[in-house]
Write a structure and sequence with these properties.
The chain is built from nine helices and two strands. By secondary structure, the protein is mainly alpha-helical. It is flat, with a radius of gyration of 25 Å.
Amino acid sequence: MTRGVAGFTTTVAPPPYAMAIEATRKALTQRSAQYRWLVIYFSLGSMTCLTSTLLADDWRVLLLLLWLPVLVLIFDALDIRTIQRWRIDIIFFWVQGDLVLPMLAQTLRQVPALPPQTLEGMLVSLPGWPSGSCIPMAVREPLCRLQTQVASIAVRRMWVRAALWLLSWSSVCAAWVWHMAPLLGGLLAVPLINGGWRLTERRLLRRQVMALVQVMDEAGVTRTNLVTWVEAVCWDGVLASLKLSCLADLASRPIKSMSPARPTTDQNR
């Protein structure tokens, strides 16, 4: 939006709440389009497999239906990524101190053009951080990075699940047509890949926790608030054991601001 003042043209940025509403509308539109394409591809895939089975008169063609769970997992990954990008946009305004998350939720609920049920599902994915200025500005950015890392792990986890399902399906089909060796190889590869990914998830989160502790130590935040704010992060799509491990690791790390003060020179005398 532009305004003319004394012959000059100045650009006035829209308010953060208006930009948040527009970002929410775009995210809802994108999610609706993705769901529509999922229904189309799922229906076409099912009909194609059933028709091919009837024409070929061979029930083994029904094995192609095992591709449909991979399609659903891909849709879930894309949907989680859409919510992640929307959440990053919202949290960016919160980090800058331009909006309050509970007030934004109330504002979005009053917009009639937004579907209420889908909107509530997106609002639940926002972190449950308290309103006001109780969280220092220096701490908000590392909290935002932690939330981004958690959401990124959730998206990658869906891709890994789709790849593991595809690997398992390929191993079964290869064993059916050719030999049992691919099946044994798939049975060995699936747990190895899954275990390696879990170790990668823990390492990525531990790195963010260490950075968070360092910043909070400089800001003089207590350990209770630290654990509470990290627990309020949206952990959807992440294993509960990974969340508990992250909180336990966070609570066990020493914080300089909470360590007992050393005796002064006068006290030593």
